Amino acid sequence: MVTDEGPVVQSALLRSELIRLRKTSGLTQEQVAEDLEWSPSKLIRVEGGRSSITKVDLDALLARYGVSSENQRQRLHALNRGARTRGWWDAYRDDISEVYLRYVGYEAGAAHIRQFPGTVVPGLLQTPEYAEALTSNSVDAVKVAPVVKLRLQRQSELAQRSAPPRQSYVIDEAVIRRHVGIQKDPAIMPNQLRHIADKAQNDELITIRVIPFKAGAHIGLSGPFTLLEFDGSMPDLLYLDEGRETISLITDDTHVAQYADNFRALLESALAVDESVEFIQDAAESMI
User: Fold this and answer.
1) Fewer CB within 10 Å, N side or C side of the chain?
2) What is the pLDDT confidence band of residue 140, given thresholds at 50, 70 and 90?
3) CA pair distance 72, 4, nearest whole angstrom
4) pTM of this structure
């Protein structure tokens, strides 16, 4: 059984399933470790994602938890094999922060991405020209190329998955009106807007809604955020980029639920899907 969620998510899915099996069996970590003649710290590291697990050790755990279904065993072993591979994003470790690449690893295996991107076009919808114009104003010149390359590869890798994720975006009108790249090429922003509208019209997995200025203040003005949902038993993940390389990856139910409510509130302030597409197209034409 082959999965393509990527090693970060496959590792998390495996750990989540192993913890569920142990608790369903009514066992503590100490009891399992004693039964298998492991040190308690070994199981703690495995369940916490700080240590990989061998095929032999995984078989021992599944036997202790009474897993007899061959399909279930094959699925968990497939997750374990996937978890031990290197993610494509590892190639960027010299140029991109580790915590952001960890987010990319989770994004690579998400089933649904919900995002309010703040003051810019969502990274997964950016054209190469827009991405370069935007990035050149925020990072050192030597970092522009790898940052843009990573952003574009995120798009292509998600598109190649056997089951690409759903993507839902709410965009403020300020993003639509800002003529990014005008000094270099006035066509950059109108082309970007046409690209967004085309995605919204022709890709059934992508939904884009616009909050117009006339809607007034809204909860998104406090900052950008991304919510990732996953198949299986993994909890949702909240990604916050608070600037100055301050990045948070949060799975706490209370925080995730609050931002899920925030996203629903943003949708209530936004134009309908068809109106949003027309709004974006009109904005593109006004820039010509």
Assistant:
1) C
2) confident
3) 17
4) 0.92
